[in-house]
Each structure stands twice: as C-alpha cells, then as structure tokens.
Write a structure and sequence with these properties.
Elements: E1 11-12, E2 17-18, E3 25-28, E4 31-37, E5 45-53, E6 56-60, H1 67-79, E7 87-91, H2 97-110, E8 113-117, H3 121-128, H4 137-144, H5 148-158, E9 173-175, E10 179-183, E11 186-192, E12 201-205, E13 210-214, H6 235-247, E14 253-256, H7 265-287, H8 294-298, H9 315-334, E15 339-343, E16 346-350
Parallel strand pairs: 6-7, 7-8, 8-9, 13-14
Antiparallel strand pairs: 1-2, 3-4, 4-5, 5-6, 10-11, 11-12, 12-13, 15-16
Length: 354
C-alpha cells in the first residue's frame, strides 16, 4: 500500500527536493529534519528531527550507528550552528537499529538522556543475552508460517553473528503509557503505539500541529508488522488499534521517519486502515481454496506497490511477507473469520466451517 507518489520519487515540501537530500530542513520554528543514510537497498534514509530548546537540542530518533550517518549528522547540525555536545536528549520512537543505535552511542558519548518505550525492553534483553540464546526466535516464527526455505536462508545469514552491544546500551528512561513531556517550552503528547514494535511511541505537539510519527504512520509505504525478535500474539490488532489512537488526535502535519513531510495524519491513517482491511479480505479469499500456511497464503498475494509475487522477493523481504501474512491470518482467527491448527510447530489456517 502506498500513496500516489512512491518513496523513491517523493519530494518533501520542507526542502523542495527529494526527501533523502542531505541537509537540515526547517519544518517549523525551531524544528529541523535531517535525513541520514541507511546501508540498505530499500529504504535509503531515516529522518531525525532536531528540536531546539533554551537548554540544548532534543532529537527525535538518532539514526543508524554507521560512520556515514554520524558524519552527516555532525555536518547538518553544524549548518544550524550546533555540535554533538549541544544534544541533551534523544526521544527514540522504537528500538530498530536505524532509529536507536546512533542515539545510544552518542547519548553515552555526550551525556545526552535517551528515552525508549518499555515495550521494547524484551528486544534489548534478548540482544544482551544473545550469546546464551540457542536459536534466533525469528526462525520459530518463520517455521510456524511454513516458510522453511526462508528460515534456512535466515539461519545461514545469522548464525554466529552477535550484536555489537556498544550500539545497544539500555536507555536512561523507559517510556510507559500515554503521558506528556516537556521539551523546552513545548509540550509533547507521548502516545504509546504498539504494532510495528511493542514499544513504539509517537510524539504529538498539538500546539504546533505536528506529529513525530516514527515508523507508525509512514506517508508512502506501510510499516512492517510481525517482525520483532520477541514475537507477540496479535501485532496487527495492536497496530490497527494504535492507528485508531492516532486518528483520535487532531489532524496533524505528519513528520515521518521515512519519506516526505505530509499534510494530514488523518488522511494517511485512513489509508493504512483501509489497506489492512483489504489485505485481510485477500487472506480470507485465499483460505477459500482450502487449508493453508501463512507462507502459502503469502504466495497468493501481491507485494509492494509493483505487485510483485512472493517468489520474486529476496529472502529478507520474503521473510517479512510471511510474517506479516501470519499476523493478518491470526487477526482473522481472533475475529472468528478463520481457524488455526498447529502441528509440529507449523500453523495451518482454514476458513471457518459453516
């Protein structure tokens, strides 16, 4: 599901250029967007937002702890007349490496306070105990989805790889529940939005009409669902419930982690909810042909705005597709629109019997 303009071609109104163009782009008085590079073929950048206060800078998200991102962040802050030592706080929307790791590293270096959602603590706990974990939990999810070939490829890629814990320090503060935060003279609503990850938060500044949306609401793509090291029972139900929470806020200018600044949080939330209802219907239709695993159903669905088939996706995106389809099927079960049966760790879904 995407908007009419693809992420690859989207121009951001704050810069008048492609949204990944380096710089410190003003989105409001005292707030700038700094796109930082990502070492991946799909998403090319992550937006870090700089909020100026009389006591220093608060950054919403930090970027991926790679040299290219660190160098560009330093240069872009310099364009505003600031340095790393002016950063006093990081508000991290969620624990994924492209948001958290540079915040964790710089926070430790300059003494900046780092906040992260409590729901992401199990992920950090798992990373810190990686040398004691016999098997990546993602493999269990892939096998339960019937994606055995992808699970084998995933295992070959991850075997023996331990995280660099220097990039994965624990935050100074865990964010828990919906509450307000004072950022200089600004008041932000910290809104817990589980789904993309269990600890995801968005930050709304109602007075300025802004939503720092992280990966919860993206303007041109849909966030991945069901991809967490510590699996949860109903990630799609959580995500759609969180979208409803954001829809209940005023209509705000969307400041996303990936993609251009967009004018209406309500419009995009409505599109995302409609998209997932369509996907749920497609999953129901696929089950009409008989019992199937999530991987089987994923093979019947189109993927990306180009409507690729599952067989055309690389292993990583194939894994995301299998896990996201499983999340849709599990929600159909919760709604009473499908049944599930597990045998030898593999879940098979069926249309409900009349």
């Amino acid at each position: 599901m995407s908007s009419s303009t693809s992420t690859a071609h989207a121009v951001s109104p704050d810069s008048g250029r492609h949204w990944t163009e380096p710089g410190a782009w003003r989105v409001a008085d005292g707030i700038h967007r700094i796109p930082l590079p990502l070492p991946m073929d799909g998403l090319r950048a992550v937006n870090v937002y700089v909020i100026e206060t009389e006591r220093g800078l608060t950054l919403v998200d930090g970027g991926w702890a790679i040299d290219e991102a660190r160098t560009l962040l330093e240069k872009s802050l310099g364009e505003l007349g600031f340095a790393f030592t002016d950063i006093t706080r990081f508000l991290v929307t969620h624990v994924h490496r492209d948001h958290y790791t540079l915040a964790s590293v710089l926070g430790a270096e300059v003494g900046a306070h780092v906040s992260l959602g409590l729901g992401d603590k199990p992920t950090l706990d798992l990373l810190h105990a990686a040398d004691e974990v016999s098997e990546d939990p993602t493999l269990l999810v892939l096998r339960s989805a019937g994606a055995h070939r992808i699970a084998e490829e995933w295992q070959r890629f991850t075997d023996g790889r331990l995280p660099d814990l220097g990039m994965w320090g624990y935050p100074d503060t865990w964010l828990e529940g919906d509450h307000t935060l004072e950022v200089g003279t600004r008041t932000l609503d910290a809104v817990h939005t589980p789904g993309h990850t269990q600890g995801h938060f968005v930050f709304a500044e109602r007075a300025a009409g802004l939503l720092f949306a992280g990966d919860h609401v993206l303007p041109t793509i849909t966030p991945s669902i069901g991809f967490e090291p510590v699996p949860v029972e109903q990630p799609l139900r959580d995500f759609m419930g969180s979208l409803a929470k954001v829809r209940a806020l005023p209509d705000l200018t969307l400041l996303p982690a990936h993609g251009p600044v967009a004018p209406s949080s309500h419009a995009r939330v409505d599109q995302l909810l409609a998209h997932h209802e369509v996907r749920l219907e497609l999953c129901r239709d696929a089950l009409a042909g008989g019992a199937a695993t999530a991987y089987d159903v994923a093979g019947e669905l189109p993927w990306t705005r180009h409507e690729h088939r599952l067989a055309d996706l690389d292993s990583f995106n194939g894994a995301l597709a299998a896990m996201e389809t499983k999340a849709h099927l599990e929600l159909l079960v919760a709604r009473g629109q499908a049944t599930r049966e597990e045998t030898d760790g593999v879940v098979v879904f069926s249309a409900p019997s009349d």
